[in-house]
Design goal:
The protein is built from 15 helices and 15 strands. A nine-stranded mixed β-sheet has the order 14-13-12-11-7-10-9-8-15, with helices on both faces. A six-stranded parallel β-sheet has the order 3-2-1-4-5-6. It is α/β, with parallel strands linked by helices. The two termini are about 30 Å apart.
């Protein structure tokens, strides 16, 4: 199976913060891959904008180095790379001053899509938006992309929304969450809403519980300053994991339409019960295996920010009342894995004598690594000697199911940037959705004010207290591997 590549309209994409880490690792290599795939038409340009004084030639050299570092050898083509680099321009601009804005305005063309990627600190969003309008660089059809963190609490999120709203309509604002660009996340919607198989079972009557895990093996070194102010709750749960929870729990929208999808996600967030103190565990990783601990990484021996959080959430609506959702994320854990596991209830009556042999049916949606899905079902163990049950997976690895070419899936940023150019906001967060997520998150953070997180050894599954969070309910976390 070969995936179809549908070209977008010609565009001018201005990336503010074009010499930063995100542009180097994701944006520039991703756009090159879309050019190589034939999705970006000839009449398109990428304009880098940053404070650094740099010639267009130097920026092209910077982009070439990024491609060399972050694009696989089998996706390198000298002629295509040269043609891509020829699309690049650069302007030195002062986000909070007037330097460079006239030069940027002079580069803008009529008749193409204009998009502006704010790959900068949120404190600069307002200044950039104001100057784009002041110099007539952005018009009513332009699109702006803003990166997380989108606020640090409800108050700051509202302020950012208000700042952007002074200059752009909500339909022009694309709040990017790269988790929503992952192939498996979108396949979750396809599995739920394009097949009759699961929908009758997708409720509290048949689902025992849901686990969402995002585990990382790395620590916070390199992001220490940001991370120590945010912690895992703000960095992961409020946005990435909240979005996964919404896609699992949402009602079918009337149509695969941006506002229809986001309306249903918003309903889930508003139906979340407040989290009780006994239903949340925080942790900090200790030194080990020749690596510093969290306190050493952030150079703050008094830090109370968490590198791990596990919690139990409940949704008070008709579909999910009584079904717990367990969320877990952390740094310096046993393995790098992101997955959603939907565990179904056991049959009401077993006709088999070997009751101990029964295991639950589990649908596992894996986001990374090895994107794919498997459904664990019970079958008879082969051989004579009676009816012995064994659990086996019905596995669908995208790499195997779609073949070599079909498995070559775009990076999440590639897909989302192309959606910006198309004007498709389905996979982007709406302002009221962001505020609702913070309205739920803020009281959770307030619960542990002044409390130190539990310690945990690196290379484990987190603090022992997190295991007890599920053990007391007669359940177990899935193994991180």
């Amino acid at each position: 199976m070969v995936s179809r590549v549908i070209p977008v309209e010609p565009f001018d994409l201005v990336v503010f913060g074009a010499t930063g880490d995100l542009a180097r690792r994701k944006i520039l290599p991703g756009l090159y891959r879309r050019w190589l795939a034939g999705q970006i038409p000839e009449g398109s340009r990428l304009i880098g904008a940053a404070r650094s004084a740099m010639t267009p030639g130097a920026f092209r050299a910077f982009a070439a180095q990024a491609i060399d570092e972050f694009v696989a050898d089998d996706k390198r083509d000298a002629a295509a790379e040269a043609a891509f680099l020829a699309r690049l321009e650069y302007v030195a601009v002062d986000a909070e001053g007037q330097t460079g804005w006239r030069e940027l305005a002079a580069l803008m063309r009529d008749g193409v899509v204009r998009a502006f990627y704010f790959s900068v600190a949120p404190a600069l969003f307002g200044s950039l938006a104001e100057r784009l309008k002041q110099h007539a660089i952005a018009d009513d059809a332009s699109r702006v992309v803003v990166e997380k963190p989108f606020g640090s609490d409800l108050e700051t999120a509202r302020a950012l929304n208000a700042t952007l709203a002074r200059h752009f309509q909500e339909a022009q604002i694309y709040r990017i969450d790269h988790y929503l660009g992952k192939e498996t996340v979108q396949n979750l919607m396809a599995v739920r809403f394009a097949n009759i198989l699961f929908e009758p079972l997708w409720n509290a009557q048949y689902v025992d519980h849901v686990q969402i895990t995002v585990a990382e093996t790395v620590g916070v070194a390199g992001r220490a300053s940001y991370y120590d102010k945010s912690g895992a709750m703000r960095d992961m749960v409020q946005n990435h994991m909240m979005q996964l929870l919404c896609l699992i729990a949402m009602e079918p929208p009337y149509h695969f339409d941006p506002d229809a999808v986001r309306d249903e996600k918003l309903k889930v967030i508003r139906a979340l019960d407040p989290v009780r103190a006994e239903n949340i565990v925080r942790g900090q990783y200790l030194p080990g295996a020749g690596q510093p601990g969290y306190l050493e990484d952030v150079e703050n021996p008094e830090s109370q920010s968490e590198s791990f959080v596990a919690l139990q959430a409940h949704i008070s609506n008709w579909r999910w009342k009584g079904t717990p959702f367990y969320l877990r994320t952390g740094k310096r854990l046993r393995a790098r894995v992101s997955e959603i596991a939907v565990t179904f209830k056991e049959p009401p009556h077993s006709i088999f004598d070997d009751a101990q042999g029964w295991r639950e049916n589990v649908l596992v949606i894996r986001l990374q690594p090895d994107e794919g899905m498997n459904l664990k079902v019970m079958i008879k163990e082969p051989g004579p000697g009676g009816m012995r049950l064994v659990q086996v997976p019905l596995d669908m690895s995208f790499a195997e199911a779609l073949g070599a070419e079909g498995a070559d899936m775009p990076d999440a940023y590639e897909r989302l940037i192309m959606d910006v150019i198309r004007g498709n906001q389905t996979l982007f967060m709406r302002g009221d959705e962001v505020e609702a997520a913070w309205a739920w998150t803020d009281p959770v953070i307030d619960l542990w004010d002044g409390q130190k997180p539990h310690d945990y050894e690196p290379g484990t599954s987190g603090p022992e207290e997190a295991l007890m969070l599920m053990h007391r309910d007669g359940r177990r976390w899935r193994e991180i591997r």
